[in-house]
Amino acid sequence: MVDYDGALEYLGAFGKYQKLIYCLTCVLTLPVSFHMLAMTFLDAKVDFHCNVPEIHHTEPGTQNYSCALNYSIPWEQDKDTKDWELSGCRRYGVTNESLSMVTCPFDAINATAAGYFNGANTSSCNHGYWYDTSQYHSSIFTEFDLVCEKNELNQLAQSIYMVGVLLGAVGFGQLSDMIGRKKTFFIGLLLQLGFGVAVAFSPNYIFFVVFRALVGTTTSAVFLPGFVIGTELVGPSMRTWAGTLIEIFFAFGYMILALLAYLIRDWRTLQLVISLPNAVFLFAYPLIIESPRWLLSKGRDEEVAVIMRRAARVNGVTLPEEVFTTKKVEEKKPKDERTHTVIDLVRTPNMAKKSVLIFFNWLVITLVYYGLSLNTSNLGGDDYLNFFIGGAVEIPAYISSIYLADYFGRPKTHAAYMIVGAIGCIACPFLTAPFLPAHLNPLSVTLAMIGKFGVTAGFNIIYLWTAELYPTMVRNVGVGASSMWARVGGIISPYVELSKAVWGPLPYIIFGSLSFLAALAALLLPETLGADLPVTLEDGENFGKRQAKRPKDYEATNGSQVNQGYSHEIPERAEEGSVPAKAPLQSMEVTSL
Prior knowledge:
This protein is mostly helical. Helix content is 57%, strand content 3%. It contains 25 helices and 6 strands. The strands form 3 sheets. The chain has a two-stranded antiparallel ribbon with strand order 1-6. Strands 2-3 form a two-stranded antiparallel sheet. The two termini are 38 Å apart.
């Protein structure tokens, strides 16, 4: 029998060995962020119009070509910007003979406004489409003609991908508990490699959607076990920081994807480049360890002892013999023979109210996060720079959220971040054309990134806060159910973009309005900092009902568990009899954006 928690008092809650193993694990999860956000570039949208073979006798870019195009494609006025642009889905019924008799130059815009083409016969693009490939050489948008009547298929691909992420979280989460975190992690890497390469060779849109959905399932197989390996490897006092570290690596992957997309303008090549690193990562199998806590749960104490001795050598410490011969007696938990389900989260009035507020926040945060992340090209300016900045702002968002939530408490900090996000989202579309001159577009990008900063910080807080709000008996169920609602937000998010057909700024107004409502909802949830966390369902129902406020330095008495701040520095060795800051949260489901 071994005492792993006792060994951590000597190894350190997050010692050198744990840092090396976890950072390597985080590096192996980088392709997850690539695949989660790749649709920005795989489905890059460009200017297009009907292909007119009748004008191919003239050289594109010449005056004669432009003139012939003016007679062949209708000009339409954008209802928001009032700018004139060539129709994307209609063309005039011209012939080689009629085009040879036209007069050039020809002012088609004024002619259209004056009614010159009234009564002219138009048709759909019966000869296919012409795409502007000056920036994006190819994308599924151009290759599979996802335009005009097939335009909504652009949103379908990302929604189905998120369905795959949801299914993978359920299936691979159970597999991880059965065969271990490490095996599940590398099975996920292998499957992600295979399905990712298959996406690059998709012969048509249907195959693309199916293979992308399968890639979505594997992101859960990689990210979630990687998260668990890290959080189960460290001491309870450092689990919050360990959980945040993998999210920071996700942000680094976000920024790396911007660079890769800038260098690679063909969607199939880009898909291969973000998939093939897994072939190298598979060779890291001997370097990654199985979660010691999972091994202990399976009675494999000898393997845990080997890990402990290796960690002691790397950390430069000596472990006393008793940690290899004794096991810490777990605190006796309340007896409860009944299996708890999601129904228990809404069975009683107060628990139901809190659950609805929590689920709404998870849904909104994920919806807005992906809405902003996958639509950077709509902000104007440089697509790649906008995307890179969108990843960069996540790092200070994650870090600051931990400190501020510890200082000001959960409800106020979360609501403040969400209101900042709401203001950024609502204001950004009004700081660009047609409301302001185009040269002031960086103002719009800045506001959008402020919105992104707010919702990213909000995600970090709501995850930690949710685990604190639910009682121990249904904590796994509560966080798991919340994650399901987050995936629903991801499924809905792509379709919000369609609202811009009604009014250009409408998607961002929807994002901002929902963020503001989520902030108000958060203020109705109880504070957990400095509070005795609930254990039973009865505790959960009573928690938040006019509870007396406690100072942040409140100490637990009579063995009760109190939720101390989680961003304080924790000493390497806990004092005897002290209560770990995150002790009540030792077992819970994990999720990701």
